[in-house]
UniProtKB/TrEMBL annotation, chain A:
Taxonomic placement: Bacteria, Bacillati, Actinomycetota, Acidimicrobiia, Acidimicrobiales
Keyword Membrane (UniProt): yes
Record's subcellular location: Cell membrane
InterPro entries: HyfE-like
The protein's name: Hydrogenase 4 membrane subunit
UniProt topology in membrane: Multi-pass membrane protein
Record flagged with keyword Membrane: yes
From TrEMBL, chain B:
GO molecular function list: lyase activity
Pfam families, per database record: NADHdh
Ranges annotated as spanning the membrane: 6-25, 58-85, 97-119, 131-151, 171-189, 232-252, 258-282, 294-315
Membrane topology (UniProt): Multi-pass membrane protein
Chief location: membrane
Source organism (scientific name): Acidithrix ferrooxidans
GO cellular component: plasma membrane
Gene: hycD1
UniProtKB keywords: Lyase, Membrane, Transmembrane, Transmembrane helix
Name of the featured protein: Formate hydrogenlyase subunit 4
Compartment annotation: Membrane
Amino acid sequence: MSVGSFTSLFYFDIGAFLFFTMAIAWRKSLFGQVRLLRANAIALFLLGLLSGIYAKDAALIGLSIVILLVRAYGIPTIIARAIPHSGDQWESTRVVNTTASILIVAAITAFAYILTEPLVALNPTKRIASLPVGVSALLIAVFLIVTRRRIATQLIAFALFDNAISACAFVLTEGVPLVVESGALLDVLLLIFVLVALASNMRSQTQSMDIAELRELHE
Amino acid sequence: MSYLSLILQITLIVVISPLIGQLMIKIKSKAEGRRGPSLLQGVRELGKLLKKGEINPIGTGSAFALAPAIYLVSTLVLSAIIPLIALKLPGSSNYDLFWVVGILLIGTIALGLGGLDTATAFGGMGASRELMVAALIEPSILMAIYALSIRANSSNIFKIVHATLSNPQQIASPQSALALIGLVIVVVAEAGRIPIDNPSTHLELTMIHEAMVLEVNGPKLAMVKLASSMRLVILIGLVVNLFFPIGISYSTSSVGSIILGIVALVIKVSLLAGLLAFVEVFLAKLRLFRVPELLAGSFVFGFLAVTASYFLPVIKA
């Protein structure tokens, strides 16, 4: 693979990653958000795969396959179980409404570009120039965690946060070592397991997950 | 020859736009399992309207009288300043993409004033909705244009198309893809198609464009209808040529390349219009209060296209 075609494929893929991140902030349907998270993780897998093929690094290709299995299949499937199959599958109450959210997402992207400029200037290669995408996905995930109320969206945002960290790693250092990555994956997986179990437990007891409607756990 | 090709381009748009509009209706009908009217139905309707007399609502003044003419003339001007069949037309070095925005708005505002002039509930409601949509479209269309002009180092439409033609791999970049999505949403909104507006219904609560021109009749309605379908064709042609300028003629000197340009334009516009009509079958109209959400989305696509051109620089071949 030549440098030119690698860079243009890499850019296209990281553009898709940014697009799916932004789309998660836009969609209201919870199952739609899970599908977008899958697409986001597939874009992340392709980032790893491309870098692996380009650097002829078998470990990196293996790592990206692990990412495909856990992040594009495992985690979204578990999160989908936190969505009630009957009843409200829409995220209708948000702290910040949709129009404002997507405009804030745009502002975050520009902010991430300004924020990472000195970092990119340290080693201005074409690949590292796309670091703002990873950082903006990180900030968008934090924004979503703060402004969304449904447990499923918060889990999605949390998974997105982790995807963004991996994307930054792929952009900066051709991926993290397999040990570190698998440790992080297990961590995230365990946390999501616990939260999904907690969520279904709470829903079976209180019929609602909205903090504003909980009476018993109020201070 | 260059003036001849200009006249040819304008005539082509006038002639094909009722047909393309009818083609979209036909494709929609087929996809829904109906037969649909014949392709010439649009032309027949225009002929019928032209033969009719005119009724002016009591109390209307010059705004109502002039609106359809201004709408049509602005659309004709628009069809003269866009590279649709050739890359060089008289005055082509002056035509900015910003002109397109301005001229589109002149027509919309003239028609909006005409709607207000009738002083009926529908006219005012339609005009206010149409102008709301127009005001939301403007920033996103400007953003998308900005993103495209970074690529070509110029906001001249002809230069942008030329740059795309001479370096086609620029199209395969994320910023172009984002700008394309943003522009397609804008075109759909500007042309008043589903999911923003439904041109085939006259339902009180949901109509936008149709409410604004409810009192327009006879030959004036023919002008408005023709101009609306021309706008759709011009905008589709603009998007097609900004992103896929295959077949467009480099100069206006040879007859063969002009004919090729015409054929290519007709095929490309029909394909994209058909695709739009087909996709519309699966969509429902958005509630008016959710329209700003969609247009804010298209603004963000344009904005991301602009920022992406800074952190994902264009790769030169």
